[in-house]
Amino acid sequence: MFDTAVIIETVVKAVIVVAVIAALAGFATFIERKVLAFMQRRLGPMHVGPYGLLQLAADGIKLFTKEDIIPQNAIKPIFMIAPVIAATTAFVAMAAVPYFPEFTLFGYTIHPIISDINVALLYVMGVASVGIYGPLLAGMSSANKWSLLGAARAVVQMLSFEVVSGLSVLAPIMMIGSLSLIDINDAQTGGIGDWLIWKQPLAFVLFAIAGFMETNRAPFDTVEFEAEIVAGYATEYSGMRWGLFFIGEYANMITISVLVSIIFMGGYNAFWFIPGGLMMLLKVSFWIFLFLWVRAAWPHVRPDQLMWVCWKVLMPLSVVNIVITGFALL
Amino acid sequence: MNDFLFIFLSFFALLGAFGMIVLHQPVHSALSLIVTLLALAGLFALLNASFLFAVQIIVYAGAILTLFIFIIMFLNVKESNLPKEPNKTLYLFLGGIVLIPLNLLVLRAFYAMPLLREPLAEDFGEIKPLGAELFTKWLLPFELISLLLLVALIGAVVFARKDEV
Q1: Which residues of B touch A137 (CB under 8 A)?
Q2: Can you spell out the DSSP letters for A90-149?
């Protein structure tokens, strides 16, 4: 079942994905500052390197060399492992995500997916749901009220919005009849008119909202909203452990962008004269930009409003959407 | 490779289960239960039961254990609240002995099962045949179990409601 070539190929792919996504996550922090700055008529980081590009390296060095402080009352092993969980689950979820169409390199066909399992979508969402343990354990073990509040909010909200994202994505799955992301992508080969966003607009909106929530982005970032609970579950963290939370968050953002692009926006199919790989990059970049744009444009919502919207508006809507899709398919 | 993975996952499953019983703090027990559940999910994946694998992660590790830990967190159990367990090792040992007949029963049932000699169908473990099986052959048990869950859900809502005066 396993031969050495497959193992080597998988390991190489895994290393590449982790390295590229981690680098992109770092780069996204720079982009975020720049985009936010331009939207607020500022310049953003300018001093380190051309256009402040080397700010990234400066931040990295700062994060790596900072003292790693562990509070005296914290439960030490749990406190230390929580950020690792947050970062690992974010990367593990990417194992079943295809990024580009398959291509040939030196006469060897490469599928740009680490493991093509037939329940890929379930797998990604499942691993993402295990990612709750990062914030939860961090907040519990920190011996800090802000952290505890942040952890409580994180768990309640993520568990609730998992229901919305799961139900909303069920309607497209019913239409395609497969949970494999490659199949979902292949069902939308016929140009822009075939994108599922036209057939499932409601599911698209619901999934996008749930995606914003699950990545803790504004306007739903009540988990770490500075004015209310300082930095939420990450209040007591410093140095690289805090950095791991940060990388996890940005990696999750990229995963959600890739998922939305594949499920609703045609995935990596070639469009007109643009090749599929470039198309995917464009879509993911657009989504990352949208994340930043929304953060600049919208105020926060209160946690209770968030829960109200989740259970009384979004969840019934997604159930109605499933029923309508079911009748349409009959 | 398969054997190696099996031994690796089983080791962690057993380690987690052992830790869950032996550890003193409820939070630590819950955490080591997560290790067991994730290792079990890996074992399902090794058996090509990919749907079970995903569901095991989503339902058990993702939702149920999160709620366990959440509730333990809100109960705010202090060291002084925990019961003293002076003869814990002895009790665990005796409990183990008491359980031996049950384990023998399980083992016998396991060996009584027919051995599978033909290769499995191509689509084994995929979601479509599984769903078809569930909704045709096992429809009644499936619906009864979902009814049971619904009852539990409604019960929780009723208990959580404030009394209207």
Answers
A1: 31, 69
A2: HHHGGGG---S--EEETTEEE-S-S---TTHHHHHHHHHHHTTHHHHHHHHHT--HHHHH
Positions of chain A with pLDDT under 50: none
CA distances from A168 to A24, A144, A276, A320 (A): 28, 36, 26, 10
pLDDT digits (tens, 9 = 90+) for A75-131: 788 888 888 888 888 888 888 888 777 776 676 777 777 777 778 888 888 888 888
Q: Which amino acid is at A330?
A: L
Instruction: Please give the Cα distance from A160 to A135 (Å, whole number).
Output: 15
User: What is the dihedral angle through the alpha carbons of B11, B12, B18, B19, rounded to the nearest 10 degrees?
Assistant: 150
* CB–CB contact A126 B74 (8 Å): no
| Domain spans, chain A | 71-329
Give dist(CA A257, CA A91) in Å, integer. Answer: 14
**Interface predicted TM-score (ipTM) of this complex, two decimals:** 0.75
Contacts of B31 in chain A (CB under 8 A): 78, 137
DSSP secondary structure of A213-243:
HHTT-TTS-GGG-HHHHTTGGGTT--HHHHH
| A125–B1 C-beta distance less than 8 A | no
Whether residues B51 and A123 touch (CB distance < 8 A) is answered with no
A2: chain B residues, CB-CB within 8 Å: 1-2
Whether A212 and A309 have beta carbons less than 8 Å apart is answered as no
What phi, psi does A109 have (nearest 5°)?
A: -75, 130
What domains can be seen in chain B, in order of their start residue? 2-160 (1.20.120.1200)
